Queue: 2 jobs
Job 1
Amino acid sequence: MHVFGVIASVAFRNFKALRNTSLRLSPFNLVIGANGSGKTSLIQALQQLRALAKLPLGDPAAVTRVGGSEITFVFDAPHLGVTARLGCVDDVVCDLLRVDPVNAAEWEEVKVELATMRSYVFDHAAMAVPASRDSGQRLAGDGSNLAAVLARWQRETPAAFDRLQAELTRWLPEFTGIVLPEDAGGVVRLGLKIGDAEGPVMADNLSQGVFYVLGILVLSFDPAPPAVVCIEEIDRGIHPRMLREVRDALYRLSYPAAMGETRAPVQVIATTHSPYLLDLFREHPEEIVITQKHGHEAHFERLADRADLAELLRDGSLGDMWFSGILGGVPEES
Amino acid sequence: MKIAFLSESPADEAVLRILVEGALKEKPTVASAGYRARGWPNVLQVLPAVIRHLHFNTDVDTLVVTGDSDDSPVHTTAHDAPQYYHPHCRMCQLRAVFRQTGKRFPAAHGRLRVRRVVGVAVPALEAWLLCGVEDSVNEAAWTEGQARGILPYTRAELKLRVYRTERPSLPHEIACAVREAERHRRDLRRLEYDFPGFAALLRDLREPIPEIS
């Protein structure tokens, strides 16, 4: 069964290092490449689209700028053929949005999906901080309201909370559950129960990796997930043997039917620098995007588009081949 | 008997444990550390270090290693001839690593060397799991397909048939794999007959542990 993403493709012209390149997006996309090669720029472009899509559309004739940066998004079924073109003043600010065809009803549907889009760069220090009970509607981009989100799930969607907790204790069997004590001022703290120990281990004593695991699990088991999720450095702080679980958690978003879920698929764009995580995509090279940088210019390549891929896969692991430079996506040497 | 396993995934290890138990008709002591490789050729790359570690640092007497053949040449009886070595056959490669790594080791922990138990699943472990369920899935069919240039099935198809999805979660993969392996546990003869790469593993397992004379 073909699974559609929200966004079918994105094309860049003069946006940061992405001077002239385009990328087909799948339901799941793992982006690899050297530092500064455009991985984050891809996610920033999606954030710009989300921000501009909130605004009312202007007169199409008035939203054309000659020159400058331009980012064009083509949407997937059921909005196939709809395009959104961003015009940017510079590398940071895009201030023009043109939608074709101008079909108000259809664009409204796309806008609803784009409004849910979220980007994450987890920050373990921020995730350890107690959070106000009322701030837990949606996990913040750095995960800083983690305790409040979990507390809200525990109150309002206990089934989702229980599933997350069960998965956490499967990934990290030294823990037996989550505790979320709340003080009189409505501030929630996060702790984890550990074996037969008397008291829980509170957030300020948990390891970095535990927070990243919790962040991934919150995204994976979200009972009302966004239509599109972008996650940077998805492998950070996580033991290489647990990367299979990380991959499965992301697949739970993009391919819910494969995991027995009945909700709509979530389009995932994740970045990594881990060859070990890359190894896990040997059977699905179509999900790998390589950012190639040459001088000041970068472009995207789908791994599956390589004509010699079958031969390459016979000779070694994807991760080792990436590190070797055969696949590109490695830092340039002076 | 104390056994260690080196496999490509936790699901593979779960299957191997059941099949080895079925062959031994008893539950062996298993080394607490789960040794793992990240697919082929990583199995081959880490194997010398694992053998060395087990020999000198543990009392493990048997190391069970498996790999998938993928598209490589399938091991045949001709490869078993003395001094024969097929450079692309994974069974030959794994056996050669055992031979070369251990040949200069002094005896340790009461045994001459760690016993080699090697199997190769053709073309992937999922074929073993389908043995007896789908008659068309066997090593001869794959070998014949390789010779004709028309493979009877792909590895992806085998995985889909076992897991019913192209992207199984690890718990689902293990549950399916264990269910099929349990089916074989009491009677391994069909698996042994249909998959010489498994029969080779059983033969190794029946060899005595190399003891100090």
Note: Chain B has one domain: 2-206.
Job 2
Amino acid sequence: MTTDLGMPSGPGSAPVDSRDAASGTTGVPRLADGTALTKKDFTSDQEVRWCPGCGDYAILAAVQGFLPELGLKRENIVFVSGIGCSSRFPYYLDTYGMHSIHGRAPAIATGLTATREDLSVWVVTGDGDALSIGGNHLIHALRRNVNLKILLFNNEIYGLTKGQYSPTSHVGQVTKSSPLGSLDRPFNPVSLALGAEATFVARTMDSDRQHLTAVLRAAAEHRGSALVEIYQNCPIFNDGVFDVLKDRTEAAARILHLTDGEEVAAGDTVVVRDDQGVMTVAPRAEADPTRIVVHDPAADDPSAAFALSRLDSPDLGHVPMGIFRNVARPTYDDSLREQIASARTGEVTDADIDALLAGRDTWTVRA
Amino acid sequence: MSTKLVQKLDRVVIRFAGDSGDGMQLTGDRFTSETALLGNDLSTLPNFPAEIRAPQGTLPGVSSFQLHFADHDVLTPGDAPDVLVAMNPAALRANLGDLPRGASIIVNTDEFTKRNLAKVGYAVSPLDDGSLEAWHVHPVAITSIAVEALASFTDLTRKEKERAKNMFALGLLSWLYTRPTEGTESFLKSKFADRPEILEANLAALRAGYNYGETTEDFAVSYEVAPATMREGTYRNVTGNVALSLGLVAAAHRAGLPLFLGSYPITPASDILHTLAGLKRYGVATMQAEDEIAGVGAALGASFGGALGVTTTSGPGLALKAETIGLAVSLELPLVVCDIQRGGPSTGLPTKTEQADLLQALFGRNGESPVAVVAPSTPSDCFDIAVEAVRIATTYRTPVIVLSDGYLANGSEPWRLPRTAELPDIAVEFATEPNAVDAKGAPVFHPYLRDPETLARPWAVPGTPGLEHRVGGIEKADVTGNISYDPDNHDHMTRLRQAKIDGIADTIAPLAVDDPTRDAEVLVVGWGSTYGPIAAAVREARARGGRVAQAHLRHLNPFPANTGEVLRGYQRVIVPEMNLGQLSMLLRAKYLVDIESHTSVRGLPFQAGDLADVISAAVASVSHAPLKETAQ
């Protein structure tokens, strides 16, 4: 599938410039000029153990293929995951990695990022891990704007525990734990992230390597929290849930491409905005040209991005794909380092610590 | 100069009590500071309600601060006050039961109104009905005299003037016990630097209180308590929470690691977060996390990156952190978890002390997940225990739980300042090179290849070329660290993790026994904050002629190597605890010694006198020979 997102595409495009203050990899040591790593360098010696046909394979291949273009030293890249099928991800990448506990990866990665400016830190999580047990950590990492890249594999089901409904499963979904249909209303991960005032929010799909890679690239460039929702197929417990988006003809009519500065459209339909800011999809022929939404991911106010995220429907009638929001804000970790740096008066010596221990009121007892 | 009689005392216990809005904690703090600067030894016990402002004038709203100071070494805040300062009827009613007959009571008569009396069930004012005849009552119209003293402050409202009544009380007590007030004056000057009128009012109230003591006929005598004989050195007064914070900073400095605190506010641990948040100049990073789990998670993430990860909490928070501590056990990374215990279960008694998290610290996780557990014995020992916790965590690459409690956290005592350069050398070395070769002879890194002595695994931090590796909570193969579900490997790794923690006993000091006559048949063993009350009780039992030995555990997991030997050396072993016998259970199970558990869970420290009775009774039961006087 070919989609033009208006973003730099494919390996060989300009590498992320670590000297650019706005880059997500500023401060991370880069490879010497003229040297480069390959996909093989990022492939660990561990046997990959996902089910045959799992969407995770495609995402892994895309990530392994994408990482070399960052031009970073491999030892300065860290993947942290929680629990679930997707969270096995770090084992298969030959970087530093931690397969942690259920839902906690954003918290753990926050501590790592806060103390290590020289690392490119990625979180790999799933819909259950990120939105259910770890929902609190996710929204707080996003609101703090920690320089983390969070890849949320959304397959709308619990896989590792064998097929219960997840916080993104649709109402009425019949699963092992909802034999009469799920009663829960699902989260829209993009709406949730925008509600938490995430500075970078995007959606892409496991099977669209080019789109996925372009989104990863933009996420890596973004300094701050990046939430990337990746539609991912679980062939065992929720097979084919995104199939209509993978069919070329269907996709053309359903996927609303989010491209900076361009109209939001799918095939013959466009997105229009009414006076209240509510967005709807309309045939282009019937749309008032002045009301057609032109995408601006850098808009300061997240309302338009949020309205776009509400165009989702359970039947995948229209699905916005691409970067919903991408704005520059101070990051938590940079600000923390700044506070420390400005409080510091030089290297801490034993004498400094002695003075700290003594405080203001001391008295001396002589022999 | 006062022309009144000055009488010398060797020790005094004062309790300041008032409504939680009356500023009693500040008054107590300032009096303590004056006393410390004078060179008395001292110990303090703040006691306040969990509610920030309980209904005014009611019993639940009473806040108090007790201070014991002396010309000799002080072990506890004192069982019973010699002087009660009662700022309202509720403070009198709530504290009278603790007051021995003959003690002095200074009451603020202005607050003894019909309405305030009724709030606490006094039909008639106890000041008028003769019910206080057993005590020396000093009725002082503290509020109105303070307001009168501030008559010239025309810009202040009456309410603002009334607020200075605690400074009046402090001034009066400072006169009564011959304390210098310069320290308080400079404290007020810095506190109210940008509000000159409030500053002047407070200073005026302080002086008015002092002068009132000197001029009124109600106080015929003032008192002096000479400085205590203390070891040569420079001292400051310190609370347990501040000492613990400073210990963490000093230890991180000695270890050469940046300190990262991930913490969620919880009573009574929050002061550690506050203290460390103010120390950015020393490179300290603090993060107020979204919850307890994130606090420990962020700390563990920081440790993975080569920082000293620390989290602070109290009992309910420790429960929430359990899973992450288990992950740290599996990752074998340094992590310091400070549990400032409070009354439980559940929310329990947030502002009261208890030591009922011992078993939670040892066993409150799934699977076999041993961690090191240490406990400070006094407020200033919180500093040393923090250094020890960091030493264990970094040397053995393990979580260490520090069990302090509300009594140590908020209590204070003089602390002889250590020299940073003389603290234990705990410098940390990260792995920098591959530590093995593969089948083809190429260098490789095995993240779980252990140091043969400590059984610690290498600490290889991200950013180190050639050592890229993955860690996680799934069982790992020995040496390589790869995922392994092999039954024999799991059995092996489970035993290895336990052996690593057990091996810490090799590097901790043996359990010391204080047995001056060397022939005691009764041993009293404690842990944590009961040190002071137990030592005071043992001292009293000895003064009554009993031969008794005392030992105090600072390491709860593992125990010092000689613990069993020590326990078996006595006919009777008494273990007092502020729980229902958790240490007793551990000692019985591990050493098969018949421990006698003596317990109290009232949210308050033991009374030394009560404990002395228990000890004396035990001594009497084993002493067939007549009791002899023993030298101390």
Note: Chain A touches chain B through 60 residues (CB under 8 Å).
